[in-house]
Each structure stands twice: as structure tokens, then as C-alpha cells.
Amino acid sequence: MISLSVSQYSQSRFDEENKLTNALVAEGFNNVAVFVENRQVIITYENLVYRYEPDALKEVLRIVCENLEEDYKLVIVIQRRKILISAFIISSELYKSWLAGETEKGILRASIKTTLNTDNYWKKLENKQKINNSDFIFEIVLHPQYNANFVGFVDPVDSQVNICPELKTTLLPGFSLSGRVIFPIFNDLSSEGNYIRPGLSNINQFIRLPFNTFLSATPGYFSEHRYGFDAQIRKYFLNGNFFLGSKIGYTGYASFFRGVLYYTYLDAFTPFLETGYYYSRFDVQFKFTYGRSLYEDAGWRFDIKRYFGEVDIGFYYTQTEIDKNGRFNIRIPLFLSSYMKSGPLRIRPAGYLPWEYRARATRYGWTNYSAGIDIGSSMKKYLPGYI
């Protein structure tokens, strides 16, 4: 009698796991695994379909609740490149009640638990087969680029418009390749902007270390005509709201102009220390950075950024040994909030368009490259307080 009961329970658990897995894979989610135990369901997935990570999480919750008849404790673990990042815990019955309009949003919000500590859940999931593997899915991402200088009263704006397709893929957990080519559409700026040229291209390894610490290592071709190596490390405290980190670059000059490659040996060492705090009640990020930029001018930078859903608006001030400046930046979502759900080759627009304005158009003073990979920007959309 006991043997039959255990067998029935095992079959029921298998059926529940299989049903939820198939439903999530059908919606296009990758690296899906489900573990059902007693009244708890642990689910992990990676999102390549939805532009906005909270939209993906809401869709996962909807699918799960539609396929569960009884009340379960749901643990949703989000991945980035097959690396577990954060977990969200909620009652399926309470979420259904909120969807039906029977529970207030404040009650739902107060009941949700969030954490960066995923080790206990990974122990349940590590031996489960991950369905709909994201390795070797190639994405062609179309990035629009707009640059402008405000120069005078007669012709007040010199501008440049480019389209920059990017081919990227993930090969192993945390390991990705990316390459861009810049195609000019309109150019009033430097003569280089009249020619097809390489854009940000890199190899990146992203690693999760113990104690909520994340590491990124990137060799490649960066902005500001730099090539070389970039390393970043960031340790999160207070459930992701506070961090300490460092960035180190070792780069040289490289430019591809009219079919000729110009370069120097690696000659610039750019170390930075950074710290920041995210005030989740008002969706405001504060960040302070100190270091030495490409022109060997030591200095500091203070950022304040406000998140309005998918729109980011930021201001920052820099002061170095050779310059002071204030700047404004904004990031807005582009069209299409969801993308292709299947296939080894997928084409989509970039999710967002960033733009920045400097109060003084000096070329020097806190000039640094972008490696195309930034732990802070990448991690932001997965952090508990943000979602």
C-alpha cells in the first residue's frame, strides 16, 4: 500500500514537472527546468523572447498559475547565459487572486520574497535536464546609432546616423561571442564616419562567484578606438541594493580606416573602483567611481539615475586633473517588446536606444572606452529590488 502511494506521488510529480516545462518551452523560454516537491515548485528559465525582464517574469507566472490547480509556493529562478542570478518566491494562489482582482497590489507586493542567494535552489535543479538549450542560438541585433555635436548658430548641429548589426551567441555557460559592423547612413562628423568599419566586438566570460559576487572578463575591440582586455568584478550586499566593484582595462589604439588597420601596442592601464546604492522605493540609482581614464587623468564621477519602467534618465558629474564636466543621458525602448521564440537564427531590433549629452564638448577628461559588456547594466534588470 505504501509502495503504491509513493509510486503514484512520483508519477504525479513527474506529470506536473513535464506539464509546466512544456508550457514554458512553448512560450519560447530557454534552459527550462522544473522541480516539484510537496507544495513547492522551483522553476528556472532564461529569457530571450521579451525585451523587458519583468514582462518575462509576469509571463512565466501567468503560465505556471494557469497550469497549477492547487496552491503552491512558487520559486522562480532567473538565469543569464545559463548562470543563476536571482530568485522570486510567491504563492500561486495569491497571484491568481491578484489576477482576478480579488487581492490588492500592495498585499501581493508585500508577500513576494526576493533574493540573490540561489545556492539552495540550484541543489534541487542542478541534476535536472535543462530543456530548450540556448547554446548556439545566433541573434542578429540591429542597433541604430546617433551622434551629434552642437557647434553654432548657423548650422547648430553636426550629426551622424549609423546602423550597426550585431551577431552574437552563447557557446557555454557564461561564455559568449559578439561582433558588430557599422554601416554609415548620414555623416557630418569625422571622415571616418563615411566608411564601413568594425564596431564593438568581443569574447566574454561571465562567472558567478560565492557570496553574490560576479566576474566578467572581456578581450576584444572596444569603443574609443581601443582594443585589449577588460575585467570587472562586483560584489552585491543588501539583497542587491548596494555594491562594491572594480573595473580594470589594459588597451591599445586600433582603427580601421579605408581598408587600412592602424594600431599601437597595449599602452593604457585604466583601473577604477566603484560603489553604488539602489533605492528601490523610488527606483533611483546612486553611483560613485574613482580611477584613471585613457588620458591618464585621475578623477572621480558621480551618477544619479532614475528608472521610469523601461526608460532610464541619468545625470552625472566628472572631475579629473584636467577637466570638469556635467552630462545627461537617457535610454528609451525601441519598437517590439517581444521577439522570435524559436529557431537557431533570430533577427530583432536592439531593445533600447541610449543617448548622451555633454555640457562641454571637450574630448579629454574622463574619457574611457566601452567594452560592450558592463556588469552593472547587465545585472540591473535581474536584481530583486528592480524587478
Write a concise synopsis of the structure shown.
The chain has 387 residues and is α+β, with helices and mostly antiparallel strands.
State the end-to-end distance.
47 Å
Number of strands: 21
Number of helical regions: 6
The biggest sheet, with number of strands, parallel, antiparallel or mixed sense and barrel status, is: 16 strands, mixed
Based on CA atoms alone, the radius of gyration comes out at 23 Å
Helix content: 10-25%
User: What's the SSE pattern?
Assistant: HEEHEEHHEHEEEEEEEEEEEEEEEEH
Task: Quickly give the structural class.
Answer: alpha+beta
Q: Please state roughly what percent of the residues sit in beta strands, choosing from under 5%, 5-15%, 15-25%, 25-35%, 35-45% or over 45%.
A: over 45%
Uncertain runs are 1-6
Mean pLDDT: 91
Judging from the principal axes of the Cα atoms, what is the shape?
A: globular
Features:
five-stranded mixed β-sheet, single chain, disordered N terminus, 16-stranded mixed β-sheet, 387 residues, 21 strands, 6 helices
